[in-house]
């Protein structure tokens, strides 16, 4: 390809489109800290219906007991790093099915299945690609963690599971999840769908 072709391709409005997906600020990712929980609880409360949101106590439990599975996205703005999103989950043993309890607050540190409970982006930061990138970063981290655990002869995570409502299925499929089908979990008026990301075959 000559330079002119390359130039015309990289400056066409079509090829510039992906850049509109890049968040305005600089987003970075880090493990959760206990002192984040009040802010995270506020974002959770503003993002989920009353009967679906995790309480402050549950979020604190997840942070303290399953902190390794709790990733926070921050955006650098002004002099501070603002928390703009997070993903958290807890692990269960392989033979457990996803029930209200396994999607709840208990955590088996060596469990083979990671149940994701919240994937959340602050409302004024949505639809800029932050959620998709957060999910991608989380899965990359889990793969790297598996490699470390394998090296240290520790059990690895086999899969990541989550329940979502119908309209969110494409979001997770785009992130590499497979739709397993409608879940037996009944909660509220909407059906729940079981999605899986396989880490180990
Ligand atoms: C779900 C959530 C994390 C998505 O975060 P986000 O930063 O807006 O996601 P992205 O910008 O990366 O979205 C990428 C694509 O996913 C899809 N998508 C995102 N949010 C969606 C929604 N609420 N409904 C349907 N599709 C959605 C769209 O196709 C979107 O692309 P588009 O903006 O070009 O249309 C965010 O809306 C949120 O925190 N919601 C409240 C909590 C929640 O419901 N979490 C999911 C639990 S299953």
Automatic annotation (TrEMBL):
CDD domains: NAT_SF. It comes from the Eukaryota. SUPFAM superfamilies: Acyl-CoA N-acyltransferases (Nat) (SSF55729). Keywords: Acyltransferase, Transferase. GO terms for molecular function: N-acetyltransferase activity. The keyword Transferase applies. Residues 27-198 form the N-acetyltransferase domain. PANTHER family: SEROTONIN N-ACETYLTRANSFERASE. This is N-acetyltransferase domain-containing protein. It comes from Bathycoccus prasinos.
């Amino acid at each position: 390809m000559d330079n002119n072709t390359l130039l015309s391709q990289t400056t066409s409005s079509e090829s510039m489109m992906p850049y509109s997906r890049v968040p305005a600020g600089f987003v970075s990712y880090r493990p959760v800290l206990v002192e984040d929980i009040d802010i995270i609880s506020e974002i959770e409360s503003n993002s989920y219906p009353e009967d679906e949101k995790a309480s402050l106590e549950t979020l604190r439990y997840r942070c303290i007991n399953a902190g390794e599975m709790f990733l926070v996205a921050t955006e650098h703005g002004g002099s501070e790093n603002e928390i703009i999103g997070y993903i958290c989950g807890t692990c269960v043993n392989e033979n457990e099915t996803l029930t209200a309890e396994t999607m709840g607050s208990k955590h088996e540190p060596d469990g083979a299945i990671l149940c994701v409970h919240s994937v959340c982006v602050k409302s004024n930061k949505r639809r800029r690609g932050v959620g998709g990138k957060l999910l991608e970063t989380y899965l990359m981290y889990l793969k790297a963690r598996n490699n470390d655990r394998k090296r240290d002869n520790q059990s690895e995570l086999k899969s990541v599971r989550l329940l979502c409502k119908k309209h969110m299925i494409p979001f997770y499929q785009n992130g590499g999840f497979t739709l397993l089908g409608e879940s037996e979990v009944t909660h509220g008026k909407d059906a729940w769908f079981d999605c899986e990301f396989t880490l180990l075959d």
